[in-house]
Specification:
By secondary structure, this protein is of the alpha/beta class. The chain has an eight-stranded parallel beta sheet with strand order 7-6-5-4-3-2-1-8. The longest helix has 20 residues. It starts with a helix and ends in a 17-residue tail after the last helix.
Length: 236
């Protein structure tokens, strides 16, 4: 099955109003171009070093791409991420939010931001504990150079289907609670839930996800490490 076929199948299965984010990490530029030719415009990358050469290479060949940063955001990578990406899905601590706000102001940028929340114990994933989000909500609401758009969460491996549904439903309920305490100007745009990947997106959509992050179900297995991109750089 081609990339175009997979994208068409996914769009038929996704409800109206759910955004399909194609996770292109580990994929070369030519594969992204195939998805672009099939109508896909939003792509997610998790490693800055891999993403930057692809973004540069595709800027002219594929106008209108919207890049989303979905990996762990490190403090020393905030500036280049703020410059390269329109969306950041992984803001997971208050110090990082304040640093991003300052740097985005310096760069004349206003990234769309999702707050990553950890709703179940998982040593392999970051995120705000829900109580921290509540405690820092006023500070987050008054950031000047980022636009808060909602929450992002990831499910730990090994959950059963009903456990996945409960997790994603908890995230939706938390977003509703937070939105009710935000200033009206911020609350109006705090309406996105980035939940669900190739293995669990149907459960996420059933619980209210508005953005699904799908890689394997579009591109197949990730690009082998060490292969070379059209831009001439090795993506790791």
């Amino acid at each position: 099955m081609t990339i175009a076929n997979r994208l068409e199948s996914l769009h038929h299965r996704l409800p109206p109003g759910v955004t399909l984010l194609a996770v292109s990490k580990g994929q070369p530029s030519q594969t992204i171009e195939q998805a672009y030719a099939a109508g896909q415009r939003r792509f997610g990358e998790s490693r800055l070093q891999e993403a930057e050469p692809k973004i540069r290479a595709l800027r002219q060949r594929c106008p209108g791409l919207e890049w989303h940063f979905i990996g762990q955001l490190q403090a020393n990578k905030v500036r280049p991420v703020a410059k390269a990406f329109a969306w950041i899905h992984s803001l997971d601590r208050i110090s990082l939010a304040q640093r991003l706000d300052r740097i985005a102001g310096d760069e004349g940028r206003c990234p769309q931001v999702l707050l990553q929340v950890k709703l179940r114990p998982d040593p392999n994933k970051g995120g705000f504990p829900p109580e921290q989000l509540t405690a820092h909500l006023s500070t987050l609401a008054h950031l000047s150079h980022v636009k808060l758009r909602g929450l992002m969460t990831m499910a730990p491996l090994g959950l059963e289907l009903d456990q996945l549904h409960h997790l994603f439903s908890d995230c939706r309920q938390l977003a509703q609670q937070l939105r009710a305490h935000l200033p009206s100007a911020v609350a109006m745009d705090f309406n996105q839930l980035s939940m669900g990947m190739s293995r669990d997106w149907p459960q996420a959509v059933g619980a209210g996800s508005t953005i699904v992050r799908i890689g394997n179900d579009i591109f197949g297995p990730r690009w082998p490490a060490g292969a070379h991109d059209l831009c001439g750089d090795t993506c790791t």
